[in-house]
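FORM 7B: Structural annotation worksheet

SECTION A. Query
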Amino acid sequence: MARSFEKIAKINERKELWKIIMKVHHKWNVLSNNKEHLELIFVNVDGTNIHVVVPIALKAAFDSVLVINNTYIVTNFLPQTNDIMFKTSEHPFIIRFTVGTSVSDINKHEISRKNLNFKPFSDIILENGITISY
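SECTION B. Predicted structure
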């Protein structure tokens, strides 16, 4: 029997065998120590988004496959705590691709475009304990 689809909002560290339908909302390359990896934002049908990291060793395999605004079924990835300093998602976890991660069924599912939701500067300042004097 095929595994059912799960929502991005339910992703946690308790398991690695996930199966989600998502759209690539945003995609960029990150250069660190002269090595480049891929990062993305996935969004699902209910508008929930999550930050995604594709490590250096897997970048070549997924870079041309994952296209902005295309939808996919993504299975078998590693959820990790979202401890990134500059968060692109409010989700408590990020997705890290592994050698077992697969991407399939391009554009067989309909997910509408998500609007960007920027955090107000006042919230950023308050969270970081920054004081501004004039």
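SECTION C. Observations
Strands lie at 19-32, 35-43, 49-54, 71-75, 78-81, 93-96, 102-104. The chain has two helices and seven strands.

SECTION D. Sign-off
Analyst initials: ____
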